[in-house]
Amino acid sequence: MGGPLGIGGGLIMLVLALIFGPGVISDGSDGAADSYGDVGAGLSPADSAREEPMVQFVSFVLDDVQKTWAEAFQSAGQAYRPATMVLFRNGTQSACGVGQAAMGPFYCPLDEKVYIDLGFFNELDSRFGAPGDFAQAYVIAHELGHHVQHLLGTDAKMREMQQSNPRSANELSVRLELQADCYAGVWGNSAARRDKLSTGDVEEGLGAASAVGDDRIQQQSRGGVNPESFTHGSAQQRAEWFNRGLQSGSAQACNTI
Ligand SMILES: [Zn+2]
Questions:
Q1: How far, in Å, is the centroid of ligand 1 from the Cα of 1?
Q2: Dist. CA 176 → ligand 1 center (Å)
């Protein structure tokens, strides 16, 4: 590696600023997750074969959720621009900086991509106690909810509000996250109407929404709960808003901002 050493440090600073800057909507588990190893290590062929069913499932959900939103946008006279998804293990590059597994799934509005670490799906079961395919579908639908917010300009509006009122930054972040949970429920409603859900799916989704509540995660990683530091909402709030979308099937019912 050549070049002046200073550039390396500068780049790292820049990347960190991008990761933790206001553009990224990260759904990580507050950085307390285990590190998976080197950033940039791709999937090995063995992993790919083992993970093939998971990759297929993820692609199916991605398409189904986006089809649902494309139709909703069309009926409202708006154009839907599809997001793409990047599946990774360990770490990956995004327009928002380096994504690492420890961050959990995230949406980058700069490249309009959803980044999902496949290991997170195992964690949902083993660490968060939320097993099942619909728990995974909820995560994907939540991230695409952030994409919908981006297309509607809701995320930009929220960042403006955060800048003019920094003291309510966490509360505003919670409202954005609960709306994304509600949007995930709106897709769940559509899937249910099309008979795509099987017995137990709704419970799995509600379980996953609660499992990633800030209080649950804080209790688990720090042994205590501080509601003022919540950025995604409590277990009860997250399940409530997911359910609100699920019952109503209406994006209008998800207005939190
Ligand atoms: Zn989120």
A1: 37
A2: 8
User: Is pLDDT of 146 > 80?
Assistant: yes
Task: Give Cα separations from 124 to 21, 84, 139, 158 (angstroms).
Answer: 26, 22, 10, 28
The pLDDT assigned to 210 comes to 85
Tens of pLDDT, residue by residue over 38-75, are 333 455 556 667 778 888 888 999 999 999 999 999 99
Q: Please tell me the distance from the alpha carbon of residue 215 to that of residue 171, in angstroms, as a whole number.
A: 14
CA atoms within 13 A on the CB side of 86: 24
Judge whether 136 and 239 are in contact, CB under 8 Å. no
- Under 8 Å between Cβ of 119 and 128: no
H/E stretch holding 12: helix 5-20
The per-residue pLDDT for range 18-30, each reduced to its tens digit, is: 344 445 567 754 4
Where is 91: in which H helix or E strand?
strand 91-94
Q: To the nearest whole number, what is the mean pLDDT of the chain?
A: 80
Return the minimum-mean-pLDDT range out of 22-36, 161-175, 206-220, 221-235.
22-36
Ligand 1 centroid vs 29 CA: distance in angstroms?
Answer: 11
41 near 90, Cβ under 8 Å? Answer: yes
- Report which secondary-structure segment, H or E, holds 48: helix 45-75
CA 45 / ligand 1 centre spacing (Å)? 30
The b/e string for 74-111 (b: 16+ C-beta within 10 A; e otherwise) is eeeeeebeebebebbbbbbebebbbbbbbbbbbbbbee
In the 8-state DSSP scheme, what is residue 233? -
